[in-house]
Design a protein that fits this description.
Layout (H helix, E strand, L loop, with lengths): L24 H8 L9 H5 L6 H9 L3 H11 L3 H7 L11 H4 L7 H10 L18 E5 L3 H12 L3 E6 L7 H4 L8 H13 L3 E4 L9 H7 L2 E4 L19 E3 H10 L10 E5 L3 H12 L4 E5 L11 H9 L3 E3 L2 E8 L5 E10 L2 E2 L5 E4 L2 E4 L7 H4 L27 E3 L2 H4 L4 H23 L1
Parallel strand pairs: 1-2, 1-4, 2-3, 4-14, 5-13, 6-7, 6-13, 7-8
Antiparallel strand pairs: 9-10, 10-11, 10-12
Helix pairs in contact: 1-3, 3-4, 3-7, 4-7, 5-7, 8-17, 13-14
Length: 441
């Protein structure tokens, strides 16, 4: 491990309260005892990592918290963060049989958090292989997909080295998750748990600058690409360059990782986009005391890709939605200060001529997607990218066009949930282990 936790103590994210605080013993026990232990549990099928939800909940009910945590972590090594960041409302919890009866579903996410926070250390011990059988793998990127891939291979006795170009590992769990779900130090704590298994993380190492793709392929038995996504996408409209216009993920990262310098003075905030990242930024700005927060979306509310339950939460916190509004230009005063976003009425997402109006703002956050890392992926021979710029990889095995290269997570799926990245990294590791086992048989 070559990274050190050096987060400033005074960060804006610390001003945001935990929306789903840790349950007390009595609350967890009472909630766990509501579980019906369904024989054909739909919650398991709804979880991308197939956690045996009824079993871990029943272990909580019986007081076996370590056993509950083991049940979770055997399937999802990042079960702690997933308990806090997963959209359980549309996954496991949303599939609870109580929902069909119009009753309150089991609080699966909160119970999973309760179990994993009480897990303790030393739960898993890596296998001891003969030196001749130990394989070496390199993982590019230290996000959830790579961490899951590296952890499983390490537990099976192999050597995993994770290379991260940033100063801190963890991917979006560290830099981009809404603080009311997960703080950066909690994400880093989970990364440290992974390193205790024996996974080595080297930060400040960038492929193409510090190491080459060829050297990785020559030195290691396999390479896993868990690259994530690139920088925030820009609109490409007049006035965009200059102070006051920021990328959504860049803004979140600054809020989570840098010193606050007092309370935020956000003024009037516009968030451009209708996805979950945009909703997160809007909610964060509102909770930090912005004078006014509005989301600007080029289509209707029903077309938004963000989860309905997240948008409901945003509205309760004072976020407005300006729908069918297509950005056409940013307006600045004589000094270059941002004063407004000029929009036109949208017709199926396209601006209608002669319908322009201005939305006053002091800060505009662009949440319209992130660029793909085509150039980096392209450094590995045989690895292809599709029309979207995503690495072409088998979703269940991580296989690419190069037999030594596997891929998973956002760089391959285009940007899904943390739990999807974990599942893809884990499944790629399982497939690789099966391949090595077949060869040695």
């Amino acid at each position: 491990m070559t990274f050190k936790i050096s987060l400033p103590e005074d960060r804006l994210e610390q001003q945001l309260p935990d929306k789903k605080p840790l349950l007390s013993f009595a609350e967890a026990r009472t909630e766990a005892e509501r579980c019906l232990y369904c024989a054909d549990a739909p919650c398991i099928k709804a979880c991308p990592t197939e956690i045996d939800v009824p079993t871990f909940i029943k272990k909580i009910a019986s007081g076996n918290l370590r056993g509950a945590a083991r049940t979770i972590l055997e399937q999802n090594v990042l079960g702690y963060s997933c308990a806090r960041v997963c959209p359980v409302e549309v996954l496991c919890q949303g599939s609870c049989v109580y929902e069909a009866w119009h009753k309150k579903p089991i609080a699966i996410g909160r119970l999973q958090r309760y179990a994993t926070e009480h897990a303790g250390q030393g739960m898993f011990v890596p296998k001891a292989l003969a030196p001749a059988l130990v394989k070496r793998v390199a993982c590019v990127g230290a996000g959830p997909a790579s961490l899951a891939f590296a952890a499983l291979l390490t537990l099976e006795g192999h050597k995993a080295i994770v290379l991260e170009k940033r100063a801190l590992p963890g991917g979006l769990n560290t830099t981009g998750i809404a603080p009311y779900k997960l703080h950066a130090e909690d994400a880093l704590h989970e990364v440290e748990e992974v390193t205790r298994l024996g996974v080595e993380i080297r930060t400040g190492v960038e492929v193409g600058r510090d190491v080459t793709a060829k050297s990785l392929l020559d030195e290691y038995d396999a390479v896993f690409l868990g690259l994530g996504l690139g920088e925030d996408t820009r609109l490409g409209i007049p006035g965009e360059t200059g102070p006051g216009v920021v990328g959504a993920t860049a803004w979140i990262e600054q809020m989570k990782l840098t010193k606050a310098n007092g309370n935020a003075q956000l003024g009037r905030v516009l968030v451009v986009g209708g996805g979950n990242t945009g909703i997160d930024v809007a909610r964060e700005a509102a909770l930090l005391g912005a004078d006014d927060v509005a989301m600007v979306y080029r289509r209707g509310a029903g077309d938004m890709s963000g989860y309905a339950h997240e948008m409901d939460g945003a509205r309760k916190e004072g976020v407005r939605l300006v729908s069918n509004a297509v950005p056409v230009a940013f307006v600045r005063d004589g000094s270059g200060k941002l004063t407004a976003l000029r929009v036109a009425r949208g017709d199926n997402g396209k601006p209608v001529a002669g319908t322009e109006y201005e939305l006053p703002c002091d800060l505009a956050a662009l949440a319209i997607g992130q660029s793909k890392l085509r150039a980096l992926a392209g450094q590995f021979p045989g690895v292809a990218v599709d029309a979207r710029g995503c690495v072409v990889a088998d979703v269940k095995t991580g296989a690419t066009g190069n037999p030594k290269v596997l891929a998973g997570g956002d760089c391959a799926n285009g940007g899904k949930e943390v739990v999807n990245a974990v599942a893809e990294g884990r499944d790629a590791a399982r497939a690789l282990l099966a391949r090595w086992s077949t060869r040695s048989a």
